[in-house]
Amino acid sequence: MAEENETEELEVKENTEGNTSSDSSSEPKKEGGEEEAAESESNKEGLIKSLFTAGNKLLTLPNSQVISINDDTRKLLALFSDGRFLVVETHKFDGRVMSFQALAKRKGLRFGKPMFVNQNELDAIYRYGERSAPPELSEKEVQENQLQMQRDFVNVVARAAAVKVSDIHVVVADSTQIMFRVNGMMQTVMEYDGAWGESFVRAAFASADISDSNYAQNEFQGAQKLGATPLRGSNGKLMLPHNVLAIRLQFNPIAFGSQYLVMRLLYADDNPDGSGDLASLGFGEYEENLFFRLRSVPTGLSVIAGPTGSGKSTTLQRNMIKLLQEKNYELNLITVEDPPEYPIPGARQMPVTNANTEAEKDEMFTKALSAALRSDPDVMMVGETRSLSTAELTFKGALSGHGVWTTLHANSAPAIITRLRDMGIQKFMLSDPELVKGLISQRLFRKLCPHCRKSVKDMLDNPAVKRLKVALGDFGIENTYMRGPGCKYCDNRGIKGRISVPEIILPDATFLELMIDSQTRKAIDYWTSDLNGRTLKDAAIERMLKGLIDLEEVERWCGLLDQRPVY
């Protein structure tokens, strides 16, 4: 907006009084007053029209796609696309006006200093704006727009699925950024305007098969889209890519923007043959042997831990498939999941449904788990131990003679005990090795491209390589590689997928007692020495020395090589 407009005041004076004399002979003067009033109205109309010239638009009209405000606020102000900002003079210090200014600033809208008007003038401006506004879209046009946004939704998912993206992040503010998480790293791949992003998020919510009943922009909401079902309103023509089994959607309001959508893609072809092969995930002979021992135990609890996106669910699925195969499918495996992520052939997979809030989800999860315990299971798989009631039921299942497998958010394998104790599980159950059978934690490490990786022998001045020299000597230098520049075999990334790196504990009473007594350091030393255990760092170093992962990746997840792990 030009500088001279910043201090401009819209002054439209009405003069309908005419001559105030009561003399009956003043009739011609009265007629002159009416002419002046008519001229004043004409001037006002002209000034109002001037506000809408040169394509200038009133942004604060009802149903605006640019900025949404309530009717009470709309009675106090008006904002135009050229930055002219009108405020009713008697409300210049109203908090609603100041809140609107803050909202407009967050959205990146241009606005100058207020131009003060009276209430009648503001009402006239809105009446003119509504008359001159483009007609509302027909029902057919609305449907076509919705269908186009659904196409955009499918296209974004298809582009992500083509390169096996694990998560799609959509951040809507002044502009819309779409980011893909590829091999654990975030990359911005597309950018659109804010209005497109708002429509995209609504289309994503509308496409869900399981969701809250109504989309609420300022609330946290979750939903799920199944790959096997067509998008609503698409006449069955729009489907997700064939390799996408489902999408978990999380809708979040954010500061300095309007919406943040995260979509987790679950792929159907990660295990097309229903294989229980753990080696393909990155597990070595040592870890496969420990998993075999855990599957051979008919009762007790085994827990797989790690942060979000660490591959817990995939490992659990493969292990359950392997268990059924080893037992010739002669046992009853029941799963309770929110929601079921991957198919497990031969298992009865029970979804948690009809729950919107976290409290309802916990209640329904507990109800489903109780039902599973009454359904004659041999082995139970609980998708996630998310609350004390769920944890108590998993222990109840182990106490009553079942094998129970579950996942948990914990930082390491030893920390599973700490986490369960913090949730409220009684010490006598945590200290019983007949109940607590397996503690597993894992991370996903980026795998080096074998064709373009670089030996660290040519990087001896690199600080990380110096730490490698201190920790592992010349043997480490000879057998360690770093990420290369990229080539045709890795799409110029230097990375060729990811592999699981676990730490697995088969605890005994001594280890459990030390952990419960908060003697974590002693428990770790006892595990690695007396129980022949191997920490995540040791497992990662083994893979590094095989040339599978690079030095920087080991230090990213496990800390510096020349320092002792801190537990």
In short:
With 567 residues, the protein is an alpha/beta fold. It has 18 helices and 19 strands.
Q: What share of residues are in beta strands?
A: 15-25%
The multimeric state of the shown protein is single chain
Quick one: CATH superfamily of the largest domain?
P-loop containing nucleotide triphosphate hydrolases
Overall helicity: 25-40%
Tell me, what's the shape? elongated
Any low-confidence stretches, pLDDT <50, length ≥5? 1-30
Q: Count all strands and give the number.
A: 19
Biggest sheet, strands in spatial order? Answer: 6-5-4-10-9-8-7
CATH T-level topology of the largest domain: Rossmann fold
Radius of gyration: 33 Å
Description of the molecule:
This protein is α/β, with parallel strands linked by helices and 567 residues long. It folds into four domains: 3-132, no CATH class; 139-270, Beta-Lactamase, CATH 3.30.450; 279-444 and 498-534, Rossmann fold (3-Layer(aba) Sandwich), CATH 3.40.50; 450-493 and 535-567, no CATH class. The protein is 38% helix and 20% strand. It has a seven-stranded antiparallel beta sheet with strand order 6-5-4-10-9-8-7, with helices on one face. Strands 13-12-14-15-11-16-19 form a seven-stranded mixed beta sheet, sandwiched between helices. Strand 2 (85-88), helix 4 and strand 3 (114-117) form a beta-alpha-beta unit. Helix 15 (509-516) runs antiparallel to helix 16 (520-529). 35% of the residues are buried.
